[in-house]
Design goal:
single chain; 457 residues; mainly alpha; 3-stranded antiparallel beta sheet
Length: 457
């Protein structure tokens, strides 16, 4: 999920709000949900909040033991929804058949199949009230300008690159069957126009930022066909949940627990009319205060890349270091150490690069301390490091204290350079909304590094 469209304002101390329940799109969404059987027993309403923008509150107190929201399964968009839509499956029958045989079997990410289906729903005006409630634009770095992309931090640029690769790869698997077919809704458009790449990108980020977890075993039991399951490269464990996706994320609330109203062992395709999807927060919620749920223990890199926002002083935030960065830092220090090739080989072979990071809770991660020790502590201590890797011993911090501070400053300078380049674009009037959120991200990274540096001293 993820719906925060405005910058989170540091200077605002109270989250006052304006009621949005009179908004025509909100009225249409609630009316449609009620027609599917939603009773809204917890009296949820939407508001425009000073800190987060659009969010959700309740007109009553909600007990920790009660579900925050209980939605009829029929209003969710899931694998079962796609499997039941014969018209959609007929459009892509040729692709589905190709992708269920031979080497092509299991090549489509479920997120991308759900995105493709969302493009279909929007064009064919199905789930209209829900789709009208979804933003038409997103603030993720993917939508930064080319100028902004060139000056983003490397970790964010890599996320954008990976997203773009997944989008084009999965879109291409279906695009080949579209060129010579006309849309079945009598609009006269070629299917390649309806299912164009730009629409698919929009839908991809709808799913990326607004989907909720659902048990994939339940989805498999409720799907009447196994053909769609054969084309998937991952589990069909996400769904789109109207109204629920208006609730914002916080790093301060406990993990949100979803569940279905019918036990897994009793589920079948015939269960759909009675089935509901429930969310429990396990916390007491006061009326007229914004409700938050947890999307998971997400750092700001993930929040920005997938949802388009960051959280100031995010307790789950961390800054990672790559093998390349450590190599560059090693060279920049100009500290001559014997056996440097052997040391870097040791780091690679023991996969110490997997969890190199700093955060506010622990300062330097175990692997990062090991790597700094391997690279910069005198060689006579080198042989003892194998046992520290094998048994999880934490090396003493004192021998690497100075170089650890230098590493923080090395990384900080990179972020400062990113910020200066983005601010130059702002001064030229060329910073997009996505770019503004990227600046917030860089500022948060610098704040985290400063906090870690204070912990060290």
């Amino acid at each position: 999920m993820g719906r925060t469209l405005r910058l989170r304002k540091r200077q605002t101390s109270t989250d006052s709000f304006t009621n949005l329940s009179g908004n025509p799109k909100h009225i249409a969404l609630v009316k449609w949900l009620k027609s599917t059987g939603w009773s809204n027993e917890t009296k949820l309403k939407t508001g425009d909040f000073a800190i987060t923008g659009r969010g959700v509150y309740s007109k009553i107190n909600i007990d920790a033991s009660d579900p925050l929201i209980e939605l009829p399964f029929s209003c969710l968009i899931t694998l079962a929804t796609i499997d039941d839509d014969l018209e959609f499956k007929n459009i892509f029958r040729e692709s589905i058949d190709q992708l269920t045989t031979g080497k092509s079997c299991g090549e489509i990410a479920f997120q991308c199949l759900l995105a493709l289906y969302l493009v279909y729903l929007r064009h064919h005006k199905k789930f209209v009230e829900y789709i009208d409630s979804i933003p038409t634009e997103f603030t993720t770095p993917f939508f930064c300008s080319k100028q902004e992309l060139m000056v983003l931090p490397d970790v964010i640029f890599q996320e954008v690159f990976d997203q773009n690769s997944e989008i084009k790869l999965n879109y291409g698997k279906f695009a080949s069957v579209l060129n010579d077919k006309l849309c079945s809704c009598h609009c006269g458009d070629n299917l390649s126009v309806v299912f164009n790449l730009e629409s698919f990108k929009w839908a991809y980020f709808v799913v990326n930022s607004r989907s909720v977890y659902i048990d994939d075993k339940a989805m498999k039991q409720m799907s009447s066909s196994s053909k769609l399951l054969k084309i998937l490269s991952n589990k069909p464990n996400i769904a789109l949940a109207p109204f629920l996706d208006l609730i914002n994320h916080s790093d301060k609330v406990p993990e949100t627990k979803p569940q279905l109203s019918i036990p897994l062992s009793a589920l079948s395709p015939s269960s759909k009319p009675e089935l509901t999807y429930q969310i429990y927060t396990n916390t007491n919620i006061k009326k007229n205060q914004q409700i938050f749920i947890s999307y998971g223990t997400l750092d700001n890199t993930t929040l920005l890349s997938d949802y388009g926002f960051t959280i100031p002083n995010n307790q789950h935030d961390r800054i990672t270091f790559t093998f390349t960065e450590m190599s560059d830092f090693y060279k920049a220090t100009k500290i001559v150490q014997p056996n440097s090739n052997q040391k870097f080989k040791f780091i690679r072979e023991n996969r110490l690069t997997d969890e190199m990071f700093v955060n506010r809770a622990d300062g330097f991660s175990h692997n990062l301390m090991i790597v700094l020790t391997v690279l910069f502590v005198h060689v006579e201590h080198f042989s003892n490091l194998l046992s520290q890797v094998a048994f999880g011993d934490v090396p003493p911090f004192e021998p690497i204290e100075q170089v650890a501070g230098d590493l923080i400053e090395f990384k900080r300078k990179q972020f400062v350079k990113n910020r200066e380049a983005l601010e130059n674009l702002r001064n030229l009037g060329e910073l997009t909304e996505s770019g503004r959120f990227a600046v917030e991200y860089v500022n948060e990274c610098i704040c985290l590094l400063d906090d870690v540096n204070k912990m060290k001293s």
